[in-house]
Specification:
The protein is 10% helix and 50% strand. By secondary structure, the protein is mostly beta strands. It has one domain.
Length: 260
């Protein structure tokens, strides 16, 4: 009987190819390119709602005072529509109430969310943000404000905080941890850092300029956005003008208190 002799390297290659074919072609195995899908992090089912406690930082009396106004905001997913780029988007209706929800929920505008294969965009007050972009792994970053115009908050706020917002680096810093805020813990949280810069804050040198830019979003798997902080303001000493120093800008901090 004639025997066939295979070179050792050829036999190893054949075994490796068989192994790759076996594991790579299993039809029952779900291929997951990213650790979390965008569908898990922002649920766009019509009727889905999330209620937030919101603390809004304002500067009344022409910026001479500092105040915090608190209320409840509810986001409710509405039906889908086709946006101006021909993509499927969802309208998110906002409703506002007092912090104890003792009054009736009043309409407070809306914004839209568009999800593509690799990113999720929010369009709010004619400003378009790329809130999430794959791959959502720690260390990955992208220009989340790249679609914003120059000085996107003017003329409402005449400050320099938004001069370079298009260059903010959104970065995924955690993608599976827990997060606790005001005795409430959220599980499987992805944290997206956007900005954390300041000068002369707290304002101890009252004759010098100061500013604060702070922005971060936290999403919980299967729920959506559970925490948001967005603070943009500057302090002007106004040493040569009347009325004394003043602040201009805004701040918002909101966290989920209820959802369905």
């Amino acid at each position: 009987m004639k025997r066939w002799h295979f070179p050792g390297w050829l036999l190893c290659a054949a075994l490796l190819l068989t192994s790759v074919s076996f594991w790579g072609c299993n039809p029952s195995e779900k291929q997951t390119p990213y650790p979390f899908s965008l569908e898990e992090l922002i649920v766009l089912t019509p009727g889905k709602y999330i209620t937030y406690r919101t603390d809004s930082l304002v500067f009344p009396q022409f910026g001479r005072q500092i105040a915090t106004r608190s209320y409840l905001i509810k986001h409710v997913v509405d039906s889908p529509f086709i946006d101006n780029l021909g993509r499927t988007a969802y309208r998110i209706n906002r409703f506002i109430n007092d912090t104890m929800a003792q009054g009736s929920w009043q309409p407070a505008g809306s914004f839209s969310v568009t999800r593509t294969t690799d990113r999720t965009e929010w369009a709010e007050d004619n400003r378009r943000f790329v809130k999430l972009q794959q791959p959502l792994v720690p260390g990955y970053s992208w220009k989340g404000n790249r679609y914003l115009p120059d000085q996107p908050f003017e003329p409402l706020y005449n400050f320099s905080n938004d001069d370079n917002m298009q260059n903010w680096n959104y970065q995924c810093t955690t993608n599976s941890g827990s997060f606790t805020f005001r005795n409430k813990t959220y599980q499987q949280v992805i944290t997206i850092e956007q900005a954390d810069e300041q000068f002369n804050v707290p304002v101890v040198q009252t004759t010098a300029y100061a500013f604060r830019n702070r922005a971060v979003d936290r999403f919980s798997r299967g729920i959506g956005l559970v925490y948001r902080e967005f603070e943009c303001w500057e302090y002007q000493p106004n040493t040569g003008g009347s009325g004394g120093p003043y602040r201009v800008g805004f701040g918002i901090k909101q966290w989920m208190v209820d959802h369905n």
